[in-house]
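Budget justification, computational time. The allocation requested in the original proposal was used primarily to generate structure tokens for proteins on the priority list. As evidence of use, we reproduce two of the resulting records. The first is shown immediately below.
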Amino acid sequence: FAFIGGSAATAELAAAAAAALVAGITVAWAADEASLAVARPWLQALQQGGLPGGALQALSGSAETLGTALAAERRVAGVCATSTDWLPRLARQLAAQDGAIVPLLALQEAASARQLYRFCAEQTVTINTAAAGGNAALLAGLH
């Protein structure tokens, strides 16, 4: 999951990143150095608490440049905009990409405990009963 942008409320950003980490998702956060400096205490606390090294990656630089690159990365399963200013730009970028639909969350959504499900991958399982001659019992192994 990619978190893009800086100058976010530290408590909300920490809650959103923690929600993604609890769901077992690797987090990459692209922000400028000033934003990372504010967040460094909780980033260090997570690492000291036993968070694996690659689970949370803070990328320092231009949030715009890094954010554009992260949102275009095929391995990114979702994007969280840490500022509502980023939402329209990221929505346009994600909509223009080929491939799977990548969810876009506002920070307030990602930080809400009720939205934890948004960090889980949706799966659909279908069974082709026509391949078994339309006999669902035969397909299920019930003879």
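The second record produced under the same allocation is shown here.
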Amino acid sequence: DLPQDKIIMTLDLTSYTSKERTDAVLLARLIDRIYGNPDWHDQVYHLYAGPEYPSPPADYPPPPSAPVPVELLEPNVDIDIARLEAICTYNNFCPFRLEDDQRADQQASPTGLYPLASLFNHSCGANAIWYCIGDVMIVRAAEFIPAGAEITIPYSVEESYIDRQMALKKHMLEHCIDSNVLM
């Protein structure tokens, strides 16, 4: 929830696009969280940040480190803003509220970063779906998933095939073929 009387603007210098104001607030809150809790640094920086950055390690989540005192003016972790922007670009979710079909504020769609949910791969014909209740993300099977099969989720929740393609275009090199769409 953002105050309506404040103007918040941000420009992503990686993709050269203007972001929604909720993206700017997400980035600021993520920086605050990493600054105050160094364990979050490893959890966030182990996420995919795009082709310009090294691939994240295969083991996730990283082991927790020993608690360290947090100094107000001397951070214990290196915070790379450009990399955090890239991580948010490839991993943020738009958690719609369940109680209403339409967003109350059409100017600002909600944005959240869920590190564990970011590890799921995308499929237009996904075998699981996700939704949010407040700050909690729920991932639920949409069909029978055999043991050992990969669980996939749709990255886009847009209603039409064309809208899904437009939303996915900024992240994927090839278009997504939806097995449920007849051409």
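A brief technical remark on that second record: Helices lie at 21-36, 38-45, 81-91, 161-169.
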